[in-house]
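Supplementary Methods. Inverse-folding protocol.

Structures were first reduced to a C-alpha cell string of length 252. This string, shown here, constituted the complete conditioning input.
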C-alpha cells in the first residue's frame, strides 16, 4: 500500500532510542524527509548514518532538551528552517517517573515538563505553519491509565490524552489530525533495563498479561505512526490507540 508520504516532512522527538528510532526508520522507508531530535547527539548521528546507508535521505540532526522551554523554540525553528516546513510531528519523548508520596513541586514539574509540556510547547510552535497550509499530522504518546503507584509520568500522559482530544476537535476542520498512541511493552532501554531487567521478569509478565506472547518492537509502533501520518488516515482524529499485544488494561 502506498501511504502517499513521499516528500512529506516530519520531526520525531525521542529519536535516540526505542520507539523514536523505530518511528524514524519506518517514516524514512516511506520517503519522509526527517528531522530527529533527542539530547544524545551521538545516538542521533548514528541513526542518521544508518538511514542514509539504507538509501534514504539523511535526516536533519538537532540535539535538544525538550524539557527546556527555550530549547523547544530553537528546535522548532531549526526543524522548519532545515526541512522547509514540518508536516508531521511525532512526540515520542518521555520517561518513567515514579515518585514518593511526599514528592516536592520540583519533581512534579520536571516530570510534566518532560512528559506533557514539551509536546504541548512543540506542537504550539509548529502549529502555525500547519494551519497556514491546512494540512498536518500530530501523533502523541501516552501510556497505561491504570496506575498502581504514584507515577508523575502517568499523570502527565493522562494530560496528553485529554489535551490531544480537545486539540483534535478544534483543528479537525483545518485538515490537521491529532491522535495518541498508548504503547504497551515495547523493547527499548526503558523497558528492558528499568521495568523488566531480566529475562525471567519479562517472561513472567508476558505469561500473566500479554496474550500475544511477546514484547513488541519499536517498528510495530512505527507502522501505526506512518499510517496515522498519511493522507489515508484523514478521517481518524482524536483517537487513543493501544499498541500492546492485547495487554490487559490493568497490567503493570
Amino acid at each position: 500500500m502506498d501511504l502517499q508520504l513521499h516528500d512529506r516532512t516530519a520531526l520525531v522527538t525521542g529519536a535516540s532510542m526505542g520507539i523514536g528510532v523505530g518511528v524514524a526508520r519506518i517514516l524514512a522507508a516511506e520517503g519522509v524527509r526527517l528531522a530527529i531530535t533527542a539530547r544524545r547527539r551521538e545516538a542521533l548521528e548514528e541513526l542518521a548514518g544508518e538511514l542514509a546507508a539504507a538509501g534514504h535521505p539523511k535526516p536533519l540532526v538537532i540535539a535538544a532538551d525538550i524539557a527546556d522551554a527555550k530549547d523547544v523554540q530553537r528546535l522548532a525553528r531549526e526543524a522548519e528552517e532545515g526541512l522547509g516546513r514540518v508536516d508531521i510531528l511525532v512526540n515520542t519523548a518521555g520517561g518513567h517517573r515514579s515518585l514518593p508520596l511526599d514528592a516536592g513541586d520540583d519533581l512534579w514539574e520536571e516530570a510534566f515538563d518532560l512528559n506533557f509540556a514539551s509536546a504541548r510547547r512543540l506542537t504550539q510552535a509548529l502549529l502555525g505553519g500547519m494551519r497556514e497550509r491546512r494540512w498536518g499530522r500530530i501523533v502523541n504518546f501516552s501510556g497505561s491509565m491504570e496506575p498502581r503507584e504514584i507515577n508523575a509520568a502517568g499523570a502527565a500522559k493522562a494530560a496528553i490524552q485529554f489535551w490531544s482530544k480537545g486539540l483534535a476537535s478544534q483543528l479537525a476542520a483545518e485538515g490537521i489530525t491529532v491522535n495518541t498512541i498508548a504503547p504497551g511493552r515495547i523493547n527499548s532501554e526503558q523497558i528492558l533495563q528499568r521495568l523488566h531487567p531480566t529475562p525471567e521478569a519479562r517472561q513472567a509478565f508476558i505469561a500473566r498479561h500479554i496474550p500475544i506472547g511477546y514484547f513488541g518492537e519499536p517498528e510495530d509502533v512505527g507502522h501505526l505512526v506512518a499510517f496515522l501520518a498519511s493522507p489515508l488516515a484523514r478521517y481518524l482524529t482524536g483517537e487513543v490507540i493501544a499498541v500492546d499485544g492485547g495487554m490487559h488494561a490493568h497490567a503493570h
